[in-house]
């Protein structure tokens, strides 16, 4: 006769957890994979996007573009050469694309950088959307 053994539920996923622990954590991923962290909100008649970009020199290393309803933020953090052997800073290129809301005025976008935060302001207009009935014709 065969005896059934009950497995301890606590060890059921032990192999999975061991495997997950062997993966690099998110903070050790290259900057290009992590991306740019943003905050976006409507403030009256403008759409605001704030991007967290510490350690960036906005003159040579930051670019904001708007085209076809998409806001693109591109930044490069350049590595400095030091004689030390340890760094936890992340270097490389970062890009983030954000769809602009309906009514965004792409010609009047402004951007400012202060204390590691890029703030992009996009004026918006509120258009009243009218619903109209579309006539349907019968194909002969």
UniProtKB/TrEMBL annotation:
CDD domains: ACD_sHsps-like. It holds the Pfam family HSP20. PANTHER family: HEAT-SHOCK PROTEIN 20 FAMILY MEMBER (PTHR11527). This is Hsp20/alpha crystallin family protein. It comes from Kribbella koreensis. Belongs to the small heat shock protein (HSP20) family. SUPFAM superfamilies: HSP20-like chaperones. Gene3D superfamilies: 2.60.40.790. Signal peptide: none annotated. Residues 29-139 form the SHSP domain.
